[in-house]
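The aim of this short unit is practical: by the end, you should be able to scan a pair of folded records and say something sensible about each. We start with the first protein, listed as its amino acid sequence and then its structure tokens.
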Amino acid sequence: MKLLAPNNPRTLPTSLLSILPRSPYHRQLSSTHQIPPPTPFVPDSKTFLSLIGRNLSAHSAKIPTWTSLFSLSSTQLRTLGVEPARTRRYLLWWRQRFRTGIYGIGGDLHSVKDAVAHVRVVEVPRKRTGEGVFRGPDQMRRVVVNVAPDAEVHERDLRALKPVQGLKVLGAKTIAGPFVEPVKGTGGSVAAIRVQEGMWEQRRGVKVDGGERRKVMVRRKRKLEEMKKARR
């Protein structure tokens, strides 16, 4: 007899669930509750809360560990005093983005020391065929990569280097991007990126005339006030 999974798989015993095929519901539930590993740029919960901004770093004592950061529910966060509700939604939104590998500037950096990462401009091959690498002025491109400030980049290492997300090269060798601090004496080809409060913050929009729900009413009242003043 073939077993069919019901609409709500939580109603079945655990022993029966183990033999049912994995549905999209299970995969979504699993990805929502998994705890991703910390990264060199984001090593702990305090750094994460500081990066996403909106004064969430003030709640770092309530969310002291990496596990609690990615396992607490919205109800538990409310019990801990994370208010208002939009702040909890914002935290949960950034938490899910991090799970799926979506970071702000610096999130993909791997060579980090004391919350500071260094980047530099290097030339890498533009295209390859088989074992050969095409060389020449049109076959090389300049990219920004993350390496230690005193590291030597050899030609054999160029293939393994990945461009840093959110940064680009302007002109011949100037690094451009948010929160980039050029290193003196390098002509802009070497820069530092350090962890700062609100680096990944998504700014809230500004309501105009009370927002979409109240816009018509607010503008109508304003028009009536202007008409009254005009009659005087």
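Turning to the second protein, read its sequence before its tokens, just as you did above.
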Amino acid sequence: MPGVGGSSCMPSESPAEAPSAVVPPHGYADFGAYAAKLAHFIQKVPKAELHLHIEGTLEPEMMFLLAARNGVALPYASAEDARKAYDFEDLQSFLDLYYKGCSVLQHEQDFYDLTYAYLDKVASQNVAHVELFFDPQSHLANGVGFATFMAGMKRAAKDAEEKLGVDTTLIMCFLRHLPAEDAMKTLDLALEYKDDIAAVGLDSSELGNPPSKFTEVFKRAQDEGGWPGVAHAGEEGPASYIWDAIRLLKVRRVDHGVRCLEDPELVAYLIETQIAELAKNSFRASFLPDEIKAHYYELVDAQLAIFSAHIDKLTGV
């Protein structure tokens, strides 16, 4: 799958030779030894992270550190209590927690610390390329200026490339639960950073917020910013949202997209174009029906879904 810049998202180095099978052959006696060999291969092979929301990597310990630094009161007694809150039941429950975490991010150094901590962690896992989502509207609503979070993330990305060998591109997302007019105002600010932002995306609460709501926003981003588009679609919303993202927003990549299974024609189109990023974690969400989850490996066999280690929004990985 290509990255949003159009070239291959994978590094050029040739990985070590892969094991001949993902699981041992039937009757294989020493599964432990085979599992260790596979784990070694997974650790050593170069990786690309195509789906990562930087605000969602905020670990509870850092949340408390930044809250103390900035004088922000948190609704948790301890970092452990905050970690327990990540046992959420649906997407909205997670988003409520996600936006609370954003309140501790107030200064350039906060965004630097958050971004560099994530890049340092994945560098140890041999991740060579990261396409990093960020949500400007969450921070603008908290009184944080666009220049503040851009400076922190850019500085962290530069340091990570020089010190860790991790290449990072920034994808600015619009929050779909907010009005399109708010997205347009955010785009006004973002256009000053044409050289720093690689693409635009669409995330947040999907139900009731179809891609069609943002048609003009994406068109302007493409026309004036030269930015390709990606969009979360078909995570909670129906398969028609995926078609809208493709036809109306002209996206280069569909994120999640698991509801494509409701539309055989759409499945065939996604197999042909290979623009869907159906990571394994997309099928673990508790709000998905079992009949959707059960078909993941069929999509792998059809070369639509991909095995991946996308972190998405969860901390503690």
